[in-house]
């Protein structure tokens, strides 16, 4: 083992220790410093570790939490970046913290969330056993440009790791394009026709041009966004049959969903311990990923039923008369799914937006125009909306254009006062923050209600 590797590992561990003593996360900076000393460090410290990597626009953290739980249900310990530090630096930090000074990892398995743009660097370094791609939507236009650029970055990572099994969302034609002309084995998951809406078409803002030839796709059914039973009439790019597929949504409940799935040729009824349709898709991806990692099916199913949500992902807080949920919202596709969940609420509720446009959020806020806020206009169960964060006024103006009544909208820039307003609410509260909005406001709720730090 080279001296450079030993110095890099020692530096990473020391910076992490200092960060935790100071009650800071220490999730990315230690790895960033270590990689400057030894750029090949991740490749070294991950040797011999069977890893599953998860990427995608939405659902990365939730899917990783489910997979982590699947390993636990199977009695296997794994490394994971549960803080959500998903760049090369954060992933390196977590591996280093589980290895000796000579670079020998103490654990056999790892579950790693990876930023879409960084897969081109992370996959060749890790050479994971499985690579789960949840979905691809327009996201952070200022950073990614268009979804084709995101797809190209992920494809570059796949090409650098040809032995990795791809676990792909069959419903997403953009994700499915990754399987074209690569030697990797592919496992498909998704929501089959019986779980979709026959005859529906994607919304006007969705990406519906074939990623292989540019032709407008045809749809037999739609699950949500651009997901569904698609087919290109020109090149034939079409939805593939699934290994893990949702065949029926039995119930969509406030705290979870009950579904029927097929796993191979066998049918199974499963409870998904998270509400909303998109989390059903995440659950199917988890089962497919866990089975690709050769975990027992029962362990994977138990994980989907029992896992604890990641911070800010339908996370519950015991505050106010009926509690609050925090749901990260960072792009139009994710926002629309959260809005669909809110529309299904039978009792009155309140909404809080904490919206920033810092670098980690994406500085381009044009996605607000594609979010279907018009669905909130005239909604009888909507008791009020409070707006906070740097972009509070921008969100307010968008809601007014959507037809939401002005008397329902209130600005509250002070996070401490906002916490007190939530505590005083007689209705359940749904907090919809951007990423940095979540990181800034969540500590207020943890301080008031108790809870773990974001990296725990």
Secondary structure: elements and pairs:
Blueprint (H helix, E strand, L loop, with lengths): L2 H19 L7 H9 L3 H5 L4 E6 L4 H14 L4 E3 L7 H9 L12 E5 L5 H8 L3 E4 L7 H4 L2 H13 L5 E5 L3 H4 L9 E6 L5 E2 L19 E7 L2 E5 L12 E9 L4 E7 L2 E7 L4 H16 L4 H10 L6 E5 L6 E4 L4 H12 L5 E6 L12 H4 L11 E7 L3 H10 L7 E3 L3 H9 L5 E5 L1 H15 L7
Parallel strand pairs: 1-3, 1-4, 2-3, 4-5, 5-6, 6-10, 14-18, 15-16, 15-18, 16-17
Antiparallel strand pairs: 7-8, 8-9, 10-11, 11-12, 13-14
What features would you highlight for this structure?
single chain, 456 residues, alpha/beta, nine-stranded mixed beta sheet, six-stranded mixed beta sheet, 16 helices, 18 strands, globular
The major sheet is characterized as: 9 strands, mixed
Based on Cα principal axes, name the global outline: globular
Give the oligomeric state.
single chain
Number of strands: 18
Beta-strand proportion: 15-25%
Low-pLDDT parts are: none
N- and C-termini, Cα separation: 31 Å
Strand order of the largest sheet: 2-3-1-4-5-6-10-11-12
Radius of gyration: 22 Å
Number of helical stretches of at least 4 residues: 16
- The helix/strand class is alpha/beta
Q: Can you walk me through this structure?
A:
Helices cover 35% and strands 21% of the residues. Strand 11 (257-263) and strand 12 form a beta hairpin. The two termini are 31 Å apart. The mean pLDDT is 92. With 456 residues, the chain is α/β, with parallel strands linked by helices. It has helices spanning 3-21, 29-37, 41-45, 60-73, 88-96, 119-126, 141-144, 147-159, 173-176, 277-292, 297-306, 332-343, 367-370, 392-401, 415-423, 435-449, and strands at 50-55, 78-80, 109-113, 130-133, 165-169, 186-191, 197-198, 218-224, 227-231, 244-252, 257-263, 266-272, 313-317, 324-327, 349-354, 382-388, 409-411, 429-433.
């Amino acid at each position: 083992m080279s001296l450079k590797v030993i110095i890099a590992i020692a530096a990473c561990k020391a910076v992490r220790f200092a960060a935790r003593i100071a009650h800071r996360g220490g999730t990315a900076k230690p790895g960033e410093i270590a990689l400057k000393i030894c750029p090949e460090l991740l490749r070294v410290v991950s040797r011999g570790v069977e890893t599953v990597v998860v990427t995608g626009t939405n659902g990365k953290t939730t899917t990783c939490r489910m997979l982590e739980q699947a390993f636990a249900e199977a009695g296997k310990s794994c490394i994971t970046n549960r803080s959500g530090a998903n760049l090369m630096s954060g992933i390196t930090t977590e591996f280093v913290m589980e290895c000796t000074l000579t670079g020998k990892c103490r654990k056999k398995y790892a579950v790693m969330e990876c930023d879409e743009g960084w897969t081109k660097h992370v996959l060749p370094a890790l050479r994971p056993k499985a690579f789960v791609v949840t979905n691809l939507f327009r996201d952070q236009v200022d950073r990614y440009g268009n979804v084709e650029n995101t797809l190209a970055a992920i494809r570059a990572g796949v090409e650098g790791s040809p032995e990795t099994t791809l676990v792909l969302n069959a419903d997403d034609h953009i994700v499915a394009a990754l399987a074209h002309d690569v030697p990797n084995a592919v496992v498909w998951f998704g929501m089959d026709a019986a779980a979709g809406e026959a005859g529906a078409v994607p919304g006007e803002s969705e990406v519906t041009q074939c990623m292989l030839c540019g032709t407008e796709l045809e749809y037999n059914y739609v699950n949500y966004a651009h997901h569904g039973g698609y087919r290109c009439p020109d090149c034939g790019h079409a939805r593939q049959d699934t290994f893990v597929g949702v065949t029926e949504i039995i119930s969509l409940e406030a705290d979870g969903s009950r579904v029927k799935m097929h796993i191979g040729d066998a049918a199974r009824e499963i409870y998904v311990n998270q509400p909303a349709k998109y989390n059903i898709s995440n659950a199917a991806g988890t089962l497919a990923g866990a089975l690709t990692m050769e975990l027992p099916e029962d362990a994977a199913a138990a994980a989907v039923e029992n896992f604890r949500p990641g911070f800010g992902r339908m996370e519950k807080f015991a505050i106010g008369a009926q509690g609050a949920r925090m749901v990260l919202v960072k792009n139009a596709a994710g926002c629309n799914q959260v809005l669909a969940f809110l529309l299904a609420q039978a009792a009155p509720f309140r909404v809080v937006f904490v919206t920033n446009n810092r670098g980690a959020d994406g500085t381009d806020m044009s996605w607000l125009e594609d979010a279907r806020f018009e669905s909130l206009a005239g909604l009888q169960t909507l008791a009020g909306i409070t707006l906070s964060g740097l972009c509070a006024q921008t969100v307010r103006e968008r809601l007014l254009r959507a037809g939401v009544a002005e008397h329902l909208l209130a600005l509250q820039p002070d996070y401490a006062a906002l916490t007190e307003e939530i505590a005083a609410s007689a209705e359940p509260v749904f907090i919809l923050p951007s990423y940095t909005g979540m990181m800034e406001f969540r500590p207020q709720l943890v301080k008031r209600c108790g809870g773990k730090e974001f990296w725990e």
